[in-house]
Amino acid sequence: MFKELMIETPLAIIGTIGFSILFGVSPRHYLPCGLNGGFSWVVYRISIALNLTAPIATFAAALALTTMSRALAVHFKAPTVIFLYGGVFTLVPGAGIYAIAYNLFLGSTLEGFMTAADTVKTAVAIALGIGVSYMIPSKVFGWGKHYLATEDSAKELSHK
Question: If phi over 0 gives left and psi between -120 and 50 gives alpha, with beta otherwise, what is residue 51?
């Protein structure tokens, strides 16, 4: 498993950077996006190695990905979505979506629907992982700690 992970992780980083380029992310964010995607892939693979089901492993990876995206967003003073979109590339069940279309096209309706059920579970796991991570208060990541509003600062802003 370790040998495979040593090959797959750099590929996940490269794929994530490519996806970030495709979506027009600023070049200064390429490496953090790539490392975030690689990190989520490592979490996924370790979860699978611990005999978790694919949806649970995907949930854990999406939770880690979104939490790291939020931390990177604060560090780089950028929107969270920049780091999230690129990183989620490694978790999206593209092969499952392809298998659904392939099976339905060949007339294997039952197999196509079984694959669709697994793919939907994975997609829901991604959504839940993102949602649960957003339940963590922003102050944990340092967001807004320097921008505490006071009555004087509110008056100052209203006069500008």
Answer: left
Residue 145 above 70 pLDDT? no
Q: Of all helices (H) and strands (E), which one includes residue 69? A: helix 54-76
- Tell me the pTM: 0.82
Looking at residues 11-30, what average pLDDT do you find?
Answer: 93
Which distant-in-sequence residues (6+ apart) come within 8 Å of 98 by Cβ? Answer: none
- Supply the pLDDT for residue 154: 46
Pick left, alpha or beta for residue 152 (phi over 0 → left; psi -120 to 50 → alpha; otherwise beta).
Answer: alpha
Nearest Cα to Cα of residue 132 among 72, 86, 63, 76: 63
